[in-house]
C-alpha cells in the first residue's frame, strides 16, 4: 500500500506539472478574462478572492468559493490553475474531486489527455479512502487507457496492478468493498470470454475464492454467483463447493455478523459529529482486538475521511501503525497526509519528523520537512516546541559532525520563539536547558553553554527562581560547586517573582548544608536569615492590606481617653485594679490565698519566704468584657482538644468552662496566691517544694515560652532544643514533662525562647511533623489557667489568638460601642469572614450567644462583615455603619457578642488551619518532588490516594496556610480531602514527574523518563512503610489525565481496594489492561467512574470499559453529572472563600456578559469561550489576577472551577465521594444509585470538615429547593444524579 501511495503522489505531481503546462499553453491571460462576459458582481467577487489567496494561500474557504465562482463563469483555464493551487495547499474532499474529474472527462479531446486524467485520479484516491473514486479510476483505465485497450501483456499487467492497489486500499470495506472485487473479476471474465483458457479460468476462480474469504456484506450473493459460474462451466453440472472455500466463507460470514452493528453505526450519510466519531472509535477497537492490521487500517481510513481535521484521530492512526505495522514508508505517508489535513498541529509535525528520522531518510529531507513545519502556521508555543525538539533531537544524535548545524538550529529556534511569543516564559526550560546541555556535551563548549543560561537570565524568565535553580542545577550536576555558589550569591538578594527570593535563600542554605563546609553554611545563613525574616514580616502584613489599613484607621478614629478616664473605667469594671499585693505578717493570714498574686516577675524561690495574707474578697465582681469573650471562646472548644492533664487539673478545666467568668478569675487568683503565700502547719521543706512549683509555674508563663504537645516517646530535651534552635535568638532552656516515678517522657515540653521573634518562629512549627508525629505548638500558660496550657486553649490558631488578643485590648481602650464594633470587626475579619463563608442556608453555625439581644447583635455583626468583605473602598465606614448597635447596648455587651462570633470563628479557623497544614513526604528518588498528606482525627481505616490532573499539583487538595504557602485549596479537591478524612481515611496527594507549568500531567508513557508509575509506587511504598498503613484498604482517585493514570495503576501497584476514575477513561487499546480475549491481565478492584453529560467521547469510552468489567465479573458503575444551576448562592456553597454577597454579585455579572442565561445555566464551555475572564472584572474589580482566591486563571481559579462543573463537560466533582467510598467499602456489592441519591452532597460542600461528612440538619432536598430559582429549568432530582450500570 505504501508503494501505491508513493506512486499516486508521484502521479499527482506529474498531473500538476501537466496541468501547469496545459495552463501555460492555453489562454489564461488577462485578455481571456476580458473576452468573457462577467457580471459586475462576479468580477468583484473574483478580484476579492484572488487578492485574499495571493495574501494567504492557506484560506480553505476562499479556495472553495474561488473555484465555485470560476466554474459558474465557465473560466476553464483559470479553473484548472485554481484547482491546482487548491490541491497544493490542501487535500480535497470526494465531492471536490468528482467535480474536477467530471469537468476533465467532459473536456477530453484526444489520447494525450488520458495520462493526465489518470494522474489526477491517482492523486484523488491518495487523499482519502473513497470507493467511488477507486471505481471511477478502474473504469476509466479499463475504458480509455491505451495500453489496457491494446490487450497486450503490458496492458493486462497495468490493469491488474491498478485493481490490486484498489483491493489493498478498500477491498476489506465491509459494505462497499465488493464493488472493487466486481470490477476486477469482470475484467478477468472479459479476458476469459475473449480467449478461453484454463489458466485464465484459474485466475477468475482465484478471485472468487479470495473474495469469499473476506467479510463482505454481500457474501451470500457472491457465493451464489460463484456456484452458478462454476456449474455453467463445461463439465461443472455436479460441482460442489470445496471444503476449504466453504470454511473460509463461514468464517467471513461470522465476521460480518460481528461487525454488522458497527457498520450500521457508521453507515454512509450520517452527519459527522460526536456520536459518529465515538462509533468509529468503538469499531476501531473491535478490529484492533481481532488483530488484523489491514482491517484496522481500513477503518482508520474511513474515520479520517469522515473527520479529516480531527488531529488526535490522525495521531492515533499513525501511532497504531508505528506500534503494529512498523513499515516506515506507510507511516511516513500517513504522517504526510496528517500534516496536510492539520497543518497547525505541532504534535503531528513533530511525530512526522521523528518517523522520518527512524526510516533513515537523508538529512536534506529531514531539514526540508522541518522548514515546512515552521512555515505551516503553527498556533502556539507548545506546537513550535514539538517541532523544534524533534529536529534538535535528530541533530544531536548525529554527534559532533552536526554540532554547528545543531547550534544554528537552537539559535534560530530561540529567535523565532522570542519574536512570536515575547512574553511567554517556559518554566520547564526545555529549549534553554537542552541547548545548554548540547553545547556542553555535543559541542564540548562549556562557555557557550553558560552563555545560553546567562541569556535566559536577562530575559523575562530571569525574574523567576526556577531559572536560577535550573542554571545552578546545570553547574551542580557537573561538580562545579564554586560556580553554583557564585550563582546563589548573585540571586539571593534579587526580588524574584512568586516568592522566588525566599525559595532561593532556602535553596542556598540547603546547598551549603549538603555540599559546603560548616563555615560556608554559617556565612550563607548570616546572609539569608535577615532577608527571610523581612520577607515573612512583609507577607504577614500583605496577607490582607485592606483589613490591616482599616483596623489602623478605625483605631485612629476611635475616641481617645485620658489616662485618668481609662483608670476610672477600669476601676469601675474591676475593683481590684490598681491594688498591689503587700507582704503581710503570718498572723494576718485569712484563707491562704493572696489577692492579685502573680502581678510581677517572680525570682527564684529562697529557702525560706515569709508567709503572706490573702483577702480574695473582691473576686466575685463582674469580669471585664474581654474575659467574657475569652470565656465564650473556651466554652465552644471540643473536649478532645484539651492537652494532657492530671485528673484534678482536668476537673478544674471542666469546672472553669462551665463557670462564669468571675468565678474563673477567682480560681486563677487563688492558684496564684497559693504560690506566693505560706500555709499553716506547713514545714519548711513542704513550703520550699511548693514555692519551687510556683516558681516553675511562673516560668511556664514567662515571656517567649511555648508549650509543645504530642512529642514522640523517644524525644528528649536535646532533640527538642535542636528542633527550635533555628528560631531567632535560639533556645534558653527546655523542660520536658516526665513521669516522677519512671522518668519517662509524658509527651509535652516547655521551650523558653530568647526573643519574641523566636517565639513567633516557634509557633510556625505548629502541626509540623517531628519524629513521625504531628506536634502542637502554642504560647504557654499554666495548667488549668483558662482553658489549657496553650494561649486561649490548645487549638487556638495564630489567627484566633491574635483576634482574641485584639478583643481584650480593644475592650479596655475604646469607650464607644460603635467604634469597638468597627475596630474589632475589621481586625478579626479573617475569622468572621470564614464563619460567614461556612454559613449554610439556615444561618451561621456554632455561634454561642445568650440573650435575644446578644444573638441579634451577632447577626448584625455578621452582616457588617459581609459589607466589609464586599466593600473594598470603604471597609471602615461600612463596618461602623452596618454594625452600629442600639444606643442602650454597652461596650461590654458588644464585646461579649463579638467574643461569641470569634469563638465560632476560632473553631472554623482551626478546621481550615488543619486542612491547610499538610505534611510533606519527599519522593525517595531524589527528584526533589514531594507528596502532601494528612492523617484523620480518628483511627485510620484506609488511605485515599489523589492523582491530580494536568496543570495541577498536590497543593490543590489543601487550603493555603502559613505552612503551605503554595497550597491553592481548590473547592472540589479540598472537598475530596475533607470527606475522606471525615470517614477515617488518611489522604495523600502525589506529584507528577512533569513539572512544566503548562502541563504537569501524570504519564503512563513507555519512555521511562516520563513514566510516573515507578516513582508513584516507590513513594507510596515508603510512605505506607513509615506509617504502618500498608495493610489497610487503599483507594485511588484520578482526575482527567490522572484518571488515565489511576485506571492503569493496578498493574503497577496491586492490592488496591478501589479505583475512582473522574471524567476520563482510555480506549481499550490504550488502556492495555486486557489481553487479546478481553480478560484482565491483573486482578482489578471495583471501579467507579464519574461522567459528565457534555462529554460524549468520555461517555463512549466509559461505556466500553463497563462492558469489559462486566465480562470479567468485576464490579463497576458510573455516576453521570448533569449541568448545575448557577443560582445566587451556588458559588458560596462551593467555595469557603466566596461569601453569599460575593456569589450574588458574580452571578449577576455572569448574566450581564451572557455566560449564564436567564434560567441560571452556563451557555457554553467556559474553557472555550473567550473574553469572559476580561469582561467579568470590569463589573467586579476585586476579581484580580494576583489574588489567590479571587482570580480568573484557568485551573487556578475557584470561580472558574465551579463554572466548569456547572457546565458539566470536563471537571473534577466532589459531590459523590462519600457514597463512592461507601460503595467501595461494600466491595462494589451495594447499589450505587441508592447511595448516591441518599448521601451525595448535591449543592453544598462548604459545610464539610475533617470531622463532618455532611451537613447536619440540612437535607439535600432542602439545599436544592433553597438554591434553585423559581423559574429554573433544572433537571429533576432523579435525572440530576442518574447512573448507568
From TrEMBL:
Pfam families: RRM_1 (PF00076), Suf (PF05843). Residues 554-568 have a biased composition (Basic and acidic residues). This is RRM domain-containing protein. Residues 21-30, 543-553, 583-592, 612-674 have a biased composition (Low complexity). Residues 704-782 form the RRM domain. It comes from Chlorella ohadii. Residues 1-35, 543-697, 1258-1285 are annotated as: Disordered. Its main location: nucleus. GO terms for cellular component: nucleus. PROSITE patterns: RRM. InterPro entries: AB_hydrolase_fold, HAT, Nucleotide-bd_a/b_plait_sf, RBD_domain_sf, RRM_dom, Suf, TPR-like_helical_dom_sf. Residues 1259-1276 have a biased composition (Polar residues). Keywords: mRNA processing, mRNA splicing, Nucleus, Repeat, RNA-binding. GO terms for biological process: mRNA processing; RNA splicing. GO terms for molecular function: RNA binding.
Amino acid at each position: 500500500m505504501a508503494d501505491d501511495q508513493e506512486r499516486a503522489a508521484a502521479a499527482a505531481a506529474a498531473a500538476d506539472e501537466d496541468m501547469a503546462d496545459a495552463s501555460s499553453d492555453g489562454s489564461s491571460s488577462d485578455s481571456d478574462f476580458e473576452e468573457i462576459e462577467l457580471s459586475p458582481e462576479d468580477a468583484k467577487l473574483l478580484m476579492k478572492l484572488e487578492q485574499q489567496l495571493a495574501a494567504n494561500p492557506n484560506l480553505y474557504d476562499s479556495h472553495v468559493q474561488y473555484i465555485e465562482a470560476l466554474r459558474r463563469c465557465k473560466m476553464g483555464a483559470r479553473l484548472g490553475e485554481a484547482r491546482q493551487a487548491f490541491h497544493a495547499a490542501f487535500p480535497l474532499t470526494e465531492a471536490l474531486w468528482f467535480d474536477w474529474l467530471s469537468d476533465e472527462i467532459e473536456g477530453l479531446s484526444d489520447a494525450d489527455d488520458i495520462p493526465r486524467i489518470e494522474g489526477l485520479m491517482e492523486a484523488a484516491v491518495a487523499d482519502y479512502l473513497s470507493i467511488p473514486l477507486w471505481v471511477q479510476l478502474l473504469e476509466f483505465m479499463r475504458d480509455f487507457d491505451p495500453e489496457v485497450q491494446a490487450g497486450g501483456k503490458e496492458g493486462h499487467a497495468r490493469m491488474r496492478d491498478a485493481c490490486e492497489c484498489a483491493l489493498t486500499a478498500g477491498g476489506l470495506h465491509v459494505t462497499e468493498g465488493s464493488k472493487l472485487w466486481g470490477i476486477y473479476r469482470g475484467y478477468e471474465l472479459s479476458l476469459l470470454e475473449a480467449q478461453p483458457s484454463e489458466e485464465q479460468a484459474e485466475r477468475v476462480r482465484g478471485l472468487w475464492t479470495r473474495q469469499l474469504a473476506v467479510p463482505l456484506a454481500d457474501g451470500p450473493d457472491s457465493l451464489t454467483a460463484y456456484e452458478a459460474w462454476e456449474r455453467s462451466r463445461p463439465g461443472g453440472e455436479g460441482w460442489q463447493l470445496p471444503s476449504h472455500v466453504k470454511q473460509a466463507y463461514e468464517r467471513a460470514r461470522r465476521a460480518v455478523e460481528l461487525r454488522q452493528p458497527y457498520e450500521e453505526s457508521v453507515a454512509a450519510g450520517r452527519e459527522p459529529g460526536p456520536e459518529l466519531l465515538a462509533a468509529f472509535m468503538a469499531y476501531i477497537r473491535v478490529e484492533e482486538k481481532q488483530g488484523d492490521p489491514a482491517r484496522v487500517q481500513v477503518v482508520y481510513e474511513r474515520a479520517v475521511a469522515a473527520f479529516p481535521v480531527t488531529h488526535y484521530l490522525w495521531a492515533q492512526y499513525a501511532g497504531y501503525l508505528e506500534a503494529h505495522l512498523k513499515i516506515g514508508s506507510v507511516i511516513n505517508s500517513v504522517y504526510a497526509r496528517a500534516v496536510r489535513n492539520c497543518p497547525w498541529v505541532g504534535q503531528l509535525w513533530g511525530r512526522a519528523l521523528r518517523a522520518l528520522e527512524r526510516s533513515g531518510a537523508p538529512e536534506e529531507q529531514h531539514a526540508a520537512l522541518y522548514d515546512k513545519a515552521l512555515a505551516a502556521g503553527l498556533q502556539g508555543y507548545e506546537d513550535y516546541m514539538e517541532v523544534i525538539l524533534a529536529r534538535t533531537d535528530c541533530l544531536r544524535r548525529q554527534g559532533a559532525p552536526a554540532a554547528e548545524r545543531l547550534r544554528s538550529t537552537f539559535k534560530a529556534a530561540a529567535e523565532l520563539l522570542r519574536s512570536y511569543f515575547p512574553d511567554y516564559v517556559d518554566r520547564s526550560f526545555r529549549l534553554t536547558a537542552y541547548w545548554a546541555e548540547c553545547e556542553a556535551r555535543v559541542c564540548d563548549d562549556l562557555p557557550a553553554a553558560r552563555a545560553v543560561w546567562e541569556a535566559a537570565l536577562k530575559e523575562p524568565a530571569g525574574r523567576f527562581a526556577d531559572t536560577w535553580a535550573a542554571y545552578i542545577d546545570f553547574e551542580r550536576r557537573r561538580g562545579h560547586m564554586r560556580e553554583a555558589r557564585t550563582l546563589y550569591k548573585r540571586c539571593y538578594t534579587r526580588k524574584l517573582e512568586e516568592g522566588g527570593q525566599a525559595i532561593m535563600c532556602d535553596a542556598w542554605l540547603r546547598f551549603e548544608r549538603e555540599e559546603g563546609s560548616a563555615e560556608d553554611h554559617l556565612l550563607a545563613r548570616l546572609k539569608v536569615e535577615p532577608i527571610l525574616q523581612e520577607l515573612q514580616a512583609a507577607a504577614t502584613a500583605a496577607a490582607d492590606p485592606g483589613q490591616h489599613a482599616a483596623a489602623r484607621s478605625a483605631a485612629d478614629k476611635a475616641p481617645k481617653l485620658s489616662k485618668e478616664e481609662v483608670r476610672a473605667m477600669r476601676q469601675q469594671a474591676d475593683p481590684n485594679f490598681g491594688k498591689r499585693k503587700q507582704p503581710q505578717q503570718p498572723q494576718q493570714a485569712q484563707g491562704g490565698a493572696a489577692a492579685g498574686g502573680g502581678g510581677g516577675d517572680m525570682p527564684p524561690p529562697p529557702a525560706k519566704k515569709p508567709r503572706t495574707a490573702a483577702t480574695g474578697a473582691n473576686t466575685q465582681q463582674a469580669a471585664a468584657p474581654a474575659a467574657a469573650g475569652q470565656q465564650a471562646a473556651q466554652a465552644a472548644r471540643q473536649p478532645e482538644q484539651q492537652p494532657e492533664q492530671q485528673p484534678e487539673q482536668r476537673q478544674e478545666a471542666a469546672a472553669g468552662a462551665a463557670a462564669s467568668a468571675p468565678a474563673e478569675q477567682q480560681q486563677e487568683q487563688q492558684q496564684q496566691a497559693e504560690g506566693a503565700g505560706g500555709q499553716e502547719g506547713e514545714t519548711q521543706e513542704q513550703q520550699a517544694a511548693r514555692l519551687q512549683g510556683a516558681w516553675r509555674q511562673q516560668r511556664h508563663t514567662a515571656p517567649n515560652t511555648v508549650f509543645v504537645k504530642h512529642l514522640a516517646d523517644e524525644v528528649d530535651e536535646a532533640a527538642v532544643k535542636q528542633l527550635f534552635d533555628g528560631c531567632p535568638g535560639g533556645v534558653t532552656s527546655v523542660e520536658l514533662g516526665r513521669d516522677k516515678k519512671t522518668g519517662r517522657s509524658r509527651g509535652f515540653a516547655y521551650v523558653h525562647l530568647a526573643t519574641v521573634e523566636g517565639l513567633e518562629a516557634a509557633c510556625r512549627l505548629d502541626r509540623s511533623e517531628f519524629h513521625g508525629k504531628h506536634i502542637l505548638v502554642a504560647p504557654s500558660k499554666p495548667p488549668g489557667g483558662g482553658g489549657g496550657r496553650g494561649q486561649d486553649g490548645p487549638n487556638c490558631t495564630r489567627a484566633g489568638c491574635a483576634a482574641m488578643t485584639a478583643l481584650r485590648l480593644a475592650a479596655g481602650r475604646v469607650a464607644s460601642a460603635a467604634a469597638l464594633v468597627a475596630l474589632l470587626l475589621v481586625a478579626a475579619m479573617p475569622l468572621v469572614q470564614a464563619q460567614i463563608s461556612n454559613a449554610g442556608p439556615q444561618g451561621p453555625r456554632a455561634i454561642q450567644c445568650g440573650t435575644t439581644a446578644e444573638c441579634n447583635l451577632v447577626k448584625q455583626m455578621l452582616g457588617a462583615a459581609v459589607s466589609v468583605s464586599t466593600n473594598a473602598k470603604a471597609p471602615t465606614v461600612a463596618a461602623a455603619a452596618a454594625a452600629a448597635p442600639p444606643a442602650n447596648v454597652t461596650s461590654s455587651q458588644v464585646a461579649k457578642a463579638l467574643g461569641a462570633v470569634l469563638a465560632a470563628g476560632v473553631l472554623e479557623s482551626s478546621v481550615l488551619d488543619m486542612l491547610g497544614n499538610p505534611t510533606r513526604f519527599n519522593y525517595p528518588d531524589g527528584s526533589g518532588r514531594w507528596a502532601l498528606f494528612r492523617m484523620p482525627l480518628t483511627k485510620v481505616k484506609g488511605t485515599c490516594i489523589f492523582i491530580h490532573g494536568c496543570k495541577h499539583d498536590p497543593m490543590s487538595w489543601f487550603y493555603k496556610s502559613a505552612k503551605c504557602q503554595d497550597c491553592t485549596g481548590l473547592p472540589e479537591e479540598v472537598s475530596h480531602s475533607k470527606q475522606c478524612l471525615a470517614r477515617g481515611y488518611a489522604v495523600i496527594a502525589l506529584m507528577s514527574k512533569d513539572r512544566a507549568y503548562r502541563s504537569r500531567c501524570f504519564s503512563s508513557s513507555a519512555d521511562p523518563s516520563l513514566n510516573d508509575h515507578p516513582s508513584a509506587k516507590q513513594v507510596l511504598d515508603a510512605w505506607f512503610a513509615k506509617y504502618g498503613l500498608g495493610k489497610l484498604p487503599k483507594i485511588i482517585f484520578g482526575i482527567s489525565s490522572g484518571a488515565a493514570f489511576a485506571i492503569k495503576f493496578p498493574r503497577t501497584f496491586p492490592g488496591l481496594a478501589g479505583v475512582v476514575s473522574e471524567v476520563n477513561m482510555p480506549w481499550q487499546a490504550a488502556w492495555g489492561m486486557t489481553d487479546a480475549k478481553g480478560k484482565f491481565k491483573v486482578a482489578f478492584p471495583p471501579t467507579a467512574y464519574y461522567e459528565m453529560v457534555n462529554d460524549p467521547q468520555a461517555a463512549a469510552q466509559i461505556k466500553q470499559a463497563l462492558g469489559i468489567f462486566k465480562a470479567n465479573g468485576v464490579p463497576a458503575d458510573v455516576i453521570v453529572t448533569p449541568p448545575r444551576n448557577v443560582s445566587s448562592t451556588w458559588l458560596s456553597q462551593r467555595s469557603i472563600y466566596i461569601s453569599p454577597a460575593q456569589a450574588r454579585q458574580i452571578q449577576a455579572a455572569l448574566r450581564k456578559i451572557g455566560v449564564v442565561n436567564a434560567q441560571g445555566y452556563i451557555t457554553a464551555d467556559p474553557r472555550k469561550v473567550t473574553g469572559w475572564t476580561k469582561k467579568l472584572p470590569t463589573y467586579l474589580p476585586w476579581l484580580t489576577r494576583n489574588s489567590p482566591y479571587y482570580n480568573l486563571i484557568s485551573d487556578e481559579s475557584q470561580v472558574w472551577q465551579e463554572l466548569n462543573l456547572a457546565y458539566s463537560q470536563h471537571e473534577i466533582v466532589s459531590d459523590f465521594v462519600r457514597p463512592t467510598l461507601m460503595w467501595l467499602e461494600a466491595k462494589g456489592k451495594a447499589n450505587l444509585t441508592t447511595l448516591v441519591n441518599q448521601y451525595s452532597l448535591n449543592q453544598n460542600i462548604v459545610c464539610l470538615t475533617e470531622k463532618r461528612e455532611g451537613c447536619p440538619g440540612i437535607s439535600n432536598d432542602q439545599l436544592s429547593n433553597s438554591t434553585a430559582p423559581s423559574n429554573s429549568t433544572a433537571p429533576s432530582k432523579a435525572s440530576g444524579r442518574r447512573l448507568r450500570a
